[in-house]
Write a structure and sequence with these properties.
Strand order of the largest sheet of chain B: 4-1-5-8-6-7
Radius of gyration of chain B: 23 Å
Strand content of chain A: 15-25%
Number of strands of chain A: 6
Strand content of chain B: 15-25%
Radius of gyration of chain A: 28 Å
Low-confidence stretches of chain A: 39-44
Strand order of the largest sheet of chain A: 3-4-5-6
Structural class of chain A: alpha+beta
Helix content of chain A: 40-55%
Distance between the termini of chain B: 51 Å
Largest interface: A-B, 28 and 30 residues
Structural class of chain B: alpha/beta
Shape of chain B: globular
Largest sheet of chain B: 6 strands, mixed
Order of helices and strands of chain B: HEEEHEHEEHEEH
Number of strands of chain B: 8
Number of helices of chain A: 5
Oligomer: heterodimer
Shape of chain A: elongated
Mean pLDDT of chain A: 87
Distance between the termini of chain A: 97 Å
Chain lengths: 197, 240
């Protein structure tokens, strides 16, 4: 084979190699676009309905107090959805960065049921109870925070009952009773006491 | 048969004894009481180290469950009270599993002047003293209180003792606060009852398991209880 033929073959091979690299590059880019389209996207909760100001009673472990915080939320007009959204806004504070009362990520409200007259049943998930710091003070702050937030934003509630994954649980995290019905008036007195310290 | 041979004399004596037994306390309310008053009941403090056995309580550190700290503190508090001439009893003196109802039943049977449940926590500052937070309504039937509201008759007294105890400890400049909580078995106790949760003052949870810190807390608590002794004593007139 002459040197001229060798040069032609080498150039052809080089061209083929470059073409293959470009083709593979294109295939890879296309695969990435398809993977992105198939991946579930985390979306913000729908801000349906009107934007309203709600009152959250936020537990602060240090120095062991409840503090009132006003936030604006897009809320559904439907009572159940509205209450769930308000409780989720409260839990978002606890699971977020610089939380004043640490809760494990994933803590959530599964369902809220309004049972007349005046009884609301709140079903939370196990992450909320299992990720709660154990102790009388932190547990009582958490219960008072939930009950006060519910009663402040849903007039007519007189009693609150908690379930964990649809079942009764003896204590929240080993100390405070989580199986009895809480009376709003009883917790309001405690909340006033805890917020004035 | 001899055991059914009841003579008229024996029958009359029995009937008289029964009537005398019923009538004696109210037959003459103006009559002076017996000159020898009954011996005063000794002051008893019931100390309940919370958790135990299969219930470790809070895991304050990887190697220190709350149940161990509460038992250590309870034993120290008992010693401190004994040193001040106050008798006390532990609800558990070992790694035993007891339900809140069992603790309440033991305490109600002992009828102490004060029940103290001991807890420990990583959160808080110093000591927090809790009384029961009772539900507003229950299944009470007249004088018979439901199990979950047995404390209701004694709650004002529990709160008064809580205030005195907190005030006495605060005089030592140890950070102490009073509060209420829905913690069992406080609701089911007939006696004055409080729960004490001990937490670090430095933010370092290891402080709670330190011997020196536990000793200081127990001495402060024992001094405060000793200062309450006149109002705690069953003959002090204020009890129930």
């Amino acid at each position: 084979m002459t040197s001229r033929s060798l040069l032609v073959v080498t150039l052809c091979l080089l061209f083929l190699a470059i073409a293959m690299v470009l083709y593979v590059w294109q295939l890879r880019s296309r695969a990435q676009v398809e993977a992105t389209l198939q991946k579930p996207q985390i979306v913000a909760p729908p801000a349906t309905g009107t934007v309203r100001q709600v009152t959250l009673w936020v537990a602060h472990d240090d120095p062991g107090v409840l503090r009132v915080q006003a936030v604006s939320l897009g809320l559904s007009d439907e009572r159940q959805r509205k209450t769930e959204a308000i409780l989720r806004a409260l839990l978002a504070i606890y699971t977020g960065k610089d939380s004043p009362h640490h809760l494990a990520p994933g803590a959530d409200v599964r369902n809220v049921y309004f049972v007349d007259p005046g009884l609301v049943v709140v079903d939370v998930n196990a992450e909320l109870a299992d990720g709660q710091t154990s102790g009388i003070l932190p547990e009582q702050l958490m219960v008072a925070s939930l009950v006060q937030t519910l009663s402040s934003n849903s007039p007519g509630i007189s009693r609150v009952k908690f379930l964990v994954n649809g079942k009764e649980r003896e204590t929240l995290a080993g100390h405070v009773d989580f199986s009895s019905e809480y009376e709003v008036s009883q917790m309001s007195d405690l909340a006033r006491q805890l917020s004035s310290e | 048969m001899p055991w059914i041979n009841i003579t008229p004399k024996l029958l009359a004596a029995t009937i008289f004894a029964i009537f005398a037994g019923f009538q004696a306390p109210s037959s003459n309310p103006d009559a002076p009481e017996s000159s020898t008053p009954p011996a005063p009941k000794p002051l008893l403090i019931m100390i309940d180290p919370a958790h135990g056995g299969t219930d470790p309580g809070a895991l304050l550190t990887a190697s220190t469950p709350e149940k161990e700290i509460t038992l250590n503190v309870a034993r120290r508090l008992k010693q401190e009270l004994n040193a001040r001439g106050i008798s006390s009893q532990l609800v558990r003196d070992g790694d035993l599993t007891l339900t809140p109802d069992q603790r309440a039943a033991m305490t109600n049977a002992a009828d102490p002047a004060l029940y103290i449940a001991l807890h420990a926590s990583s959160l808080g500052n110093g000591m927090r003293v809790f009384t029961a937070l009772l539900p507003g309504s229950g299944d009470d039937k007249g004088p018979f209180l439901s199990w979950d509201r047995a404390q209701s008759a004694t709650l004002p007294r529990s709160k008064a003792l809580q205030a005195q105890l907190v005030s006495a400890v605060q005089k030592t400049r140890f950070p102490t606060q009073a509060s209420s909580a829905t913690v069992r078995p406080l609701n089911s106790l007939r006696s004055p009852a409080i729960a004490v949760e001990i937490s670090p003052t430095t933010g370092d949870v290891a402080q709670v398991s330190a011997n020196g810190y536990q000793q200081m807390v127990c001495a402060a608590l024992a001094n405060a209880i000793a200062s309450l002794a006149p109002s705690l004593h069953p003959t002090g007139g204020a009890r129930r």
